[in-house]
Amino acid sequence: MTALLDVRDFSVAFGASQPVKGVSFTANPGEMLAIVGESGSGKSLTALGLIGLLPRHAKTGGEIRFDGRNLLGQSERDWRKIRGRDIGMIFQEPMTSLNPVLTVGEQITEVLRIHEHVDRKQARQRAVELLELVNIPEARKRVDDYPHQLSGGMRQRVMIAIGVACNPKLLIADEATTALDVTIQAQILQLLDNLRRDLNMAVILITHDLGIVAQWADRVMVMYAGRKVEEGLPEPVFTNPYHPYTRGLLGASPRAESGHHYRQGPLIEIPGSIVSATGEKGCAFRPRCPSAQASCGFAVPPLRQITEDRLAACPFTPTSFVSHVHDASLRS
Amino acid sequence: MTLLSVRNLSTHYAGGRGTVRAVDDVSLTIEPGETVALVGESGCGKSSLGKSLMRLVEPTSGQVEFKGKDVTAMPARELRSLRRSIQMIFQDPFASLNPRQTIRTILTAPLKVHGVGDSKRRREIIESIIVQVGLPADSLDRYPHEFSGGQRQRIGIARALILQPELVVCDEPVSALDLSIQAQILNLLVEMKNKLSLSYLFVSHDLSVVRYFSDRVLVMYLGKIVESAPTAELWADPKHPYTRALLAAVPDPSRRKQAAPIAGDLPSPHNPPSGCRFHTRCPLATDLCRAQAPEHRLFGPAHAVACHHTN
């Protein structure tokens, strides 16, 4: 199967600084891919690149192959045909992404009328259906509401309705649940999960929340300082992380299910901050890495195939790493 | 002696659309050395409660006692000296640091206000605290914008601790920080707590952080505390349907793709539901719940629940 989205060596530069340094990944129809990383990891710029919304002065490199053709370098006119139709996007703050002076219905029909040949009446009917699809109660009434009349969770549902209005093949959700309360967040993630199955739509979930990734994603890629440092299936990545940064992230996050308490001992810190990666030769994580060697400073470690479905950009095997491929062969 | 004791505290805001009962008849205690977490969703009144304790927002009724002294009745001058003992750490340290002042000026201000030491002594105190919170000593003559988010939160912590308070109200202190920085700040807060024998009131919406960081948890919903229990007990045996829903909503790798636990949104605090405020979203709600607000009942030495149906 050819991937729906095939990103090859994608980079973003602003003058001399290069916040995204050659990232490659794929997404398949119906798949939920999570991209995790801290601020400065390049995850949001990567997302903006996928829908052609990078600032004009950004210099991009590599390829973004979508449905077989390279999107990078195409004209703004061509982008407009794809954005909203083939690729939808939802952002973190629905209030700033929704137009306050247009009703919810007007904002949904706008997308439909641009991309699909529908008249006003059909578009309105479709808007009501979309609001029902995203579980907004009394959709027929709500369609005439303005964004400020809705709660945060409802606004995010409207954003999703706009995002999926034209049955896109790919939906990008950039920290789409971060600003929401935890009970609402669970509802929205459940909704995204249902939609991607029903519409056979690939979803790229950009988040810093490892719990969300573990519970909802099919595959996860971890980014650090503009590069992919690890990729794999969520369960093995989180129970058996390979890259020292992934291990660090997991050690640093208090996880309720572990029952770990402050009176038993501190959280394992990753010392320093991502700023230390600027201008680093070799591995960008080296200044913060507990197992760094002199050789880590010579060159950027390439991604290695660790197991059948695991990639990691570290030449050293962690002492506790158990290969799942090896495991499987023992069992059979 | 109980450090902080709050009885029947209410804080109401009068506004264009009517009165918002942000905090409604809330009682709680904090013992010396204890970390008490206040959890709930946005709009539940947890920040208002935190501010009401120090009278940064004037409570409408009820009583706050700090070490036996009635805070609610205190004249302004006494209140100022009380604020030396109760300090606050905010979510966004950048918004609470004056951008035109050096860190030295920012840290000197509380010492001057409370007449601590002479200028030489003050300099010693500042130089000692900046190192204790993990910043280089040369940070003092720099400005807030020169620091990263995590470093700014360290400055906020230094400012809160410089007067050696007994109680620190932490309002979402790590929610704006990246994961790796969050761990650094939580560890620092624990370290300072042990060093200075502090008590914390930890206001947070992040249940994973609360599970790690607190000794006791108060769960708030629309201005009311619906359940309070020691942390481990709350996770082992949550009793209120809202607490259960809240805990079930925390993403958990071992529970892949389960249906969203509770439907519906938080009702508007302008017009809270009658009776038990959770009844509009509660799977157990009956006519009793719609008619009558449940009282707190004890289900263990320190486990109180306000629900008609808990038994």
Automatic annotation (TrEMBL), chain A:
InterPro entries: AAA+_ATPase, ABC_Ni/Peptide_Import, ABC_transporter-like_ATP-bd, ABC_transporter-like_CS, Oligopep_ABC_C, P-loop_NTPase. Keywords: ATP-binding, Cell membrane, Membrane, Nucleotide-binding, Transport. It is found in: Cell inner membrane. This is ABC transporter ATP-binding protein. Pfam families: ABC_tran, oligo_HPY. The keyword Oxidoreductase does not apply. Residues 5-250 form the ABC transporter domain. Belongs to the ABC transporter superfamily. The keyword ATP-binding applies. It comes from the Bacteria. GO terms for molecular function: ATP binding. Signal peptide: none annotated. PANTHER family: DIPEPTIDE TRANSPORT ATP-BINDING PROTEIN DPPD, OLIGOPEPTIDE TRANSPORT ATP-BINDING PROTEIN APPD. Its main location: membrane. It is a peripheral membrane protein.
TrEMBL record, chain B:
It is found in: Cell inner membrane. InterPro entries: AAA+_ATPase (IPR003593), ABC_transp_ATP-bind (IPR050319), ABC_transporter-like_ATP-bd (IPR003439), ABC_transporter-like_CS (IPR017871), Oligopep_ABC_C (IPR013563), P-loop_NTPase (IPR027417). Gene3D superfamilies: P-loop containing nucleotide triphosphate hydrolases (3.40.50.300). The keyword DNA-binding does not apply. CDD domains: ABC_NikE_OppD_transporters. It is a peripheral membrane protein. SMART domains: AAA. It comes from the Bacteria. Residues 6-247 form the ABC transporter domain. NCBIfam families: oligo_HPY. Belongs to the ABC transporter superfamily. This is ATP-binding cassette domain-containing protein. It comes from Rhizobium oryzicola.
